[in-house]
Amino acid sequence: MPPPADIVKVAIEWPGAYPKLMEIDQKKPLSAIIKEVCDGWSLTNHEHFALQHADSSNFYITEKNRNEIKNGTILRLTTSPAQNAQQLHERIQSSSMDAKLEALKDLASLSRDVTFAQEFINLDGISLLTQMVESGTERYQKLQKIMKPCFGDMLSFTLTAFVELMDHGIVSWDTFSVAFIKKIASFVNKSAIDISILQRSLAILESMVLNSHDLYQKVAQEITIGQLIPHLQGSDQEIQTYTIAVINALFLKAPDERRQEMANILAQKQLRSIILTHVIRAQRAINNEMAHQLYVLQVLTFNLLEDRMMTKMDPQDQAQRDIIFELRRIAFDAESEPNNSSGSMEKRKSMYTRDYKKLGFINHVNPAMDFTQTPPGMLALDNMLYFAKHHQDAYIRIVLENSSREDKHECPFGRSSIELTKMLCEILKVGELPSETCNDFHPMFFTHDRSFEEFFCICIQLLNKTWKEMRATSEDFNKVMQVVKEQVMRALTTKPSSLDQFKSKLQNLSYTEILKIRQSERMNQEDFQSRPILELKEKIQPEILELIKQQRLNRLVEGTCFRKLNARRRQDKFWYCRLSPNHKVLHYGDLEESPQGEVPHDSLQDKLPVADIKAVVTGKDCPHMKEKGALKQNKEVLELAFSILYDSNCQLNFIAPDKHEYCIWTDGLNALLGKDMMSDLTRNDLDTLLSMEIKLRLLDLENIQIPDAPPPIPKEPSNYDFVYDCN
């Protein structure tokens, strides 16, 4: 007979004694189990003891997490969290430097456990640590030379413990003094400081800025971009990552009116070229966290364009009208201006109208009206002026080339520029908050101070070239824009390292090449619509769906590494989840680092029986998406979020690494629950596999027309006096 579900067999260790094999009844109170264990070793005062995992986590067992204990788990009897917190609170105030150092080392390790952290915080432990940082820094630094290297740095352990304790979200960031902020900022501002101290100080500053408006203002007063730049010029990628994270946090939380000012400072300090030289083009791979921070910086930089993108042109504003006059002057190098007589006024208006028509504006009389739509608003006019001034030869060639055509195939420069600017803003998602999971940065945008404008200049020349290749007329305008968008998107997916490389990629994506690609894709997705083929599809579809289902479940058995997202402090914390081979249990657990390959079931501490799953929810319906937090509610995170609901109020929350993994997991979980797989990936796989299967079955019918109706049954033979010789 199998053991009762509430009985768990474990081993329990106690220093200096043989481990005990014991059956734990999960229905009994935890205090009664601890008393039973203590009685077995003749230990009194059982209330001063607790159980904890004997693995590297050392997390305490509590009434909340005791259901996570599995058969075969090794536990350790140890002092209770309250006792441990009290002892460490006293030890870190010891007059002995060796004792204090050892205590801080233990505190840094234990603070990862929320149960211990709560007890230590209840003793006002956070205040004690901040006081030690504020007052004891100089003493720590003097002791660095004489302390044993194996103990590490006392200040480093203090800051590590502080970061771990704050990461639990128990204490508000608003409670810290200016003196503490100044001290942390001083570690970052020093040119020579221990790497671990610098790393933790940067992490603390980032959390302060992201989690408190008041602290943002105080940190912004203490830290300048000039003081952060040297940390980017080193060789430690982790320090570079934390430095860019602090810059991003300051950028993100800055008031709207200060963001442009901050961008100007970043430009003066040559942040872009420093990142390009020391990070992007450094002789080492860029890890996921660095890629994310570069992506965030890219998004925040492009979001500076949002103000111009959403600003309508004022037709009465002379300064804005002068920009349009300048575009006309550069293009046509205005013939000598007529005299300002009343007789010549009409002549001048007529000339302007003619020139504005040549420039490709929709409104020839008052082209300012073309810029009243938002987006792209005034950003389109800015781009046109930049192109006219910085790529004057190309600008004049495009305008004159099209204005001199009489065959209705002229490409309207003004209208094209406005629509192209709008399209580029959509591609780069200008105005949207950065995603917490995206790593999609483009190195080429870090190669030029005016990267968006240069991007536009390349694309407007591409548009003109594609227009000619398509021999388009004004009726084909939207078709041309669709082709150009496809060309730009395909070139961007190759992640060109420079704008010149991007231009080169576009050269290979001519209209003819796009047609070939489309034709190839169309052939691969060819859809036979005759009735016999539709009937064959209907017959084959259940087999294909079963094949897709098995593939999804096999992927769940392999498992996936998910990143833990934290609104307070984004770090490389991971957890892994996989389905058991018999498809009955989900195994999951925390990881110290991103795994190389599969993670064995026995190394994952927690499990969830599939039979206990009540539902799978996605997007806004997920419990972790209903929380309020920095960057939490943006579109991309919502599209990758899903949760498993089980028991009464329990859930397992996921944010998939990408859309593909999201589809795999939601499909697989729905398949386990006997529901339909509804993802885009399933639809695409079904179409592809159905098409392939039908083509395979029809190979012998190549070039044979398939009739809509079956052929008629032939008449019976006049007699049956015939023999078929099988030999």
TrEMBL record:
<keyword id="KW-0597">Phosphoprotein</keyword>
<dbReference type="Pfam" id="PF11841">
    <property type="entry name" value="ELMO_ARM"/>
</dbReference>
<dbReference type="InterPro" id="IPR001849">
    <property type="entry name" value="PH_domain"/>
</dbReference>
<dbReference type="GO" id="GO:0005886">
    <property type="term" value="C:plasma membrane"/>
</dbReference>
<dbReference type="GO" id="GO:0048870">
    <property type="term" value="P:cell motility"/>
</dbReference>
<dbReference type="GO" id="GO:0032045">
    <property type="term" value="C:guanyl-nucleotide exchange factor complex"/>
</dbReference>
<dbReference type="GO" id="GO:0006911">
    <property type="term" value="P:phagocytosis, engulfment"/>
</dbReference>
<keyword id="KW-0963">Cytoplasm</keyword>
<keyword id="KW-0581">Phagocytosis</keyword>
<comment type="function">
    <text>Involved in cytoskeletal rearrangements required for phagocytosis of apoptotic cells and cell motility. Acts in association with DOCK1 and CRK. Was initially proposed to be required in complex with DOCK1 to activate Rac Rho small GTPases. May enhance the guanine nucleotide exchange factor (GEF) activity of DOCK1.</text>
</comment>
<dbReference type="Pfam" id="PF16457">
    <property type="entry name" value="PH_12"/>
</dbReference>
<dbReference type="GO" id="GO:0016601">
    <property type="term" value="P:Rac protein signal transduction"/>
</dbReference>
<dbReference type="GO" id="GO:0007015">
    <property type="term" value="P:actin filament organization"/>
</dbReference>
<keyword id="KW-0729">SH3-binding</keyword>
<dbReference type="Pfam" id="PF04727">
    <property type="entry name" value="ELMO_CED12"/>
</dbReference>
<dbReference type="InterPro" id="IPR011989">
    <property type="entry name" value="ARM-like"/>
</dbReference>
<dbReference type="GO" id="GO:0006915">
    <property type="term" value="P:apoptotic process"/>
</dbReference>
<dbReference type="InterPro" id="IPR011993">
    <property type="entry name" value="PH-like_dom_sf"/>
</dbReference>
<feature type="domain" description="ELMO">
    <location>
        <begin position="319"/>
        <end position="492"/>
    </location>
</feature>
<dbReference type="InterPro" id="IPR050868">
    <property type="entry name" value="ELMO_domain-containing"/>
</dbReference>
<dbReference type="GO" id="GO:0098794">
    <property type="term" value="C:postsynapse"/>
</dbReference>
<dbReference type="InterPro" id="IPR016024">
    <property type="entry name" value="ARM-type_fold"/>
</dbReference>
<keyword id="KW-0472">Membrane</keyword>
<dbReference type="InterPro" id="IPR006816">
    <property type="entry name" value="ELMO_dom"/>
</dbReference>
<dbReference type="GO" id="GO:0005737">
    <property type="term" value="C:cytoplasm"/>
</dbReference>
<protein>
    <submittedName>
        <fullName>ELMO1 isoform 1</fullName>
    </submittedName>
</protein>
<keyword id="KW-0053">Apoptosis</keyword>
<dbReference type="GO" id="GO:0005085">
    <property type="term" value="F:guanyl-nucleotide exchange factor activity"/>
</dbReference>
<dbReference type="InterPro" id="IPR024574">
    <property type="entry name" value="ELMO_ARM"/>
</dbReference>
<dbReference type="GO" id="GO:0017124">
    <property type="term" value="F:SH3 domain binding"/>
</dbReference>
<dbReference type="GO" id="GO:0098978">
    <property type="term" value="C:glutamatergic synapse"/>
</dbReference>
